[in-house]
TrEMBL record:
Pfam family, one: ABC_tran
Residues annotated as signal peptide: none
Record bears the keyword Aminoacyl-tRNA synthetase: no
Span of domain ABC transporter: 4-236
Keywords: ATP-binding, Nucleotide-binding, Transport
Coiled coil: none
UniProt xrefs under InterPro entries: AAA+_ATPase, ABC_transporter-like_ATP-bd, ABC_transporter-like_CS, ABC_transpr_MalK/UgpC-like, Mo/tungstate-bd_C_term_dom, NA-bd_OB-fold, P-loop_NTPase
Name listed for the protein in its UniProt record: ABC transporter ATP-binding protein
SMART domains (alphabetical): AAA
GO function terms (MF aspect): ATP binding
């Protein structure tokens, strides 16, 4: 039995906004599941429906296997933690943490001061117990808010961007603390964020959303290494995965060429990958290459490589990101952030209902933003150089391509399994 089950859950807000589109997903007992996606994709709405603060327009929510669409929030044994801390300003830290226990929502036989003491020490704030919230830093306030939610040992934690008001250093520190605390309490957690680092470092599994539609669910490794859609591939990872249009040309019994326009890569024909890609003979697909699949080599390198000229580069301290002009066409999935470049793509945005794999595509309700389809533009192939290697604009560079690390997507943006 799962802790939380969503079956084809949709939410339409007044004004016909389809915030969540036929979403099905399960959170297992004791699991830390992160809902990841850009602002407005519907993550908070999912969380609020699980909390009972919103009612689904369609579909079912089960908690511990029981139908829970109409269950009042107080009967869900769930604690919600938001990005704003909302502590009681007139109460001390200790009283804030102990407050839920005094309301009688106690779990276990421990006395209130003992439970508060244990919680304060687990959170590293024992010496702040007598202070008032306005005498605390943002990070300390968030720890108190966490303590107040944890103290009554709920079975389910619902966290909505709890770290987004904190500075970078504190966020990194609290990331580790939150995941170890909830794991120690054996609680199930549904955690909402737009921050991929939080998702990849904290989650047992990550669920990636786009415009109300679930795109992919899996362990951090699975969604990073085998993204189900081009959107997920582009959303996860820094720098963003290179996504290049390629025409597939099959030379029977010899090789399968990925033709990028001015140059090509070849997959062996007698190879499972070659065979899988060969099915798209004559079609245009998208080939994904993360920066880590690319490495500069000397000209004349015998393996598979791509050549280009440096368009620009960025020093990042520990590495330099180099952007190579390779005469190919890049694809930016809809919703990833680049503005449509209509002059370059030569097409008008299409207004279309439903996401890539939307089950709601034929309905009369509209998404918040029209889908424009992917954007096409001249490709910059991005790869990394160690910081001490000199590089200059216009310089010709050859990069070796690690062919085992390529990703392939069809014209709908769906992963081609190889
Ligand atoms: P963020 O990270 O910015 O909070 P999100 O992914 O959590 O974004 P939601 O808050 O779930 O997104 O919102 C999804 C969509 O539903 C948005 O377009 C939002 O404007 C809309 N929406 C949310 N709540 C309501 C509401 N009460 N009434 C009408 N529309 C709403």
């Amino acid at each position: 039995m799962t802790a939380v089950t969503l079956k084809n859950v949709s939410k339409v807000f007044p004004g016909e906004t389809l915030a969540v589109d036929s979403l099905s997903m399960e959170v297992n007992h004791g699991e830390f599941l992160v809902l990841l996606g850009p602002s407005g994709c519907g993550k908070s709405t999912v969380l609020r429906m699980v909390a009972g603060l919103e009612t689904p327009s369609d579909g079912e929510i089960l908690l511990d296997g029981e139908y829970a669409n109409d269950l009042p929030p107080r009967d869900r044994n769930a604690a919600m933690i938001f990005q704003t801390f909302a502590l009681y300003p007139h109460m001390s830290v200790a009283d804030n943490i102990g407050f839920p226990l005094k309301l009688g929502k106690q779990n276990g036989a421990q006395s209130v001061p003992d439970a508060v003491g244990d919680m304060a020490s687990a959170l590293g704030i024992s010496d702040l117990k007598d202070r008032k919230p306005n005498q605390l830093s943002g990070g300390q306030q968030q720890r108190v808010a966490m303590g107040r939610a944890l103290v009554r040992r709920p079975k389910l934690f619902l966290m909505d961007e709890p770290l987004s008001n904190l500075d970078v250093g504190l966020r990194a520190e609290l990331r580790t603390e939150i995941s170890s605390l909830v794991r120690r309490h054996d609680a199930t957690t549904l955690y909402v964020t737009h921050d991929q680092t939080e998702a990849l470092t904290m989650a047992d599994r990550v669920a990636v959303m786009r415009k109300g539609v679930l795109q992919d669910v899996g362990t951090p490794d699975e969604v990073y290494e085998r993204p189900a859609t081009m959107y997920v591939a582009a959303f996860l990872g820094t720098p963003r995965m290179n996504l290049l249009e390629a025409r597939v040309n099959v030379y029977l019994d010899r090789y399968v060429a990925l033709d990028f326009g001015e140059q090509e890569l070849r997959l062996p024909w007698h190879d499972l990958r070659g065979r899988a890609v060969a099915r798209y003979h004559g079609e245009t697909i998208v080939v994904g290459m993360r920066a880590e699949a690319l490495a500069p080599v000397a000209e004349g390198h015998p393996g598979q490589s791509i050549q280009g000229r440096v368009r620009f580069y960025e020093h990042h301290g520990h590495e330099t990101l180099v952007f190579l002009d390779i005469g190919a066409t890049a694809v930016v999935p809809d919703g990833i952030g680049d503005k449509p470049d209509l002059a370059r793509s030569g097409s008008k945005p299409r207004r279309r209902l439903g996401g890539l794999f939307s089950g709601f595509g034929q309905s009369q309700v509209e998404h918040r933003e029209a889908d424009t389809g992917p954007i096409r533009k001249p490709a910059d192939l991005v790869f990394r150089l160690p910081p001490h290697i000199p590089v200059s604009a216009g310089q010709p560079i050859t990069v070796a391509v690690h062919m085992d690390a390529l990703h392939y997507f069809d014209k709908y943006g769906k992963r081609i399994d190889v």
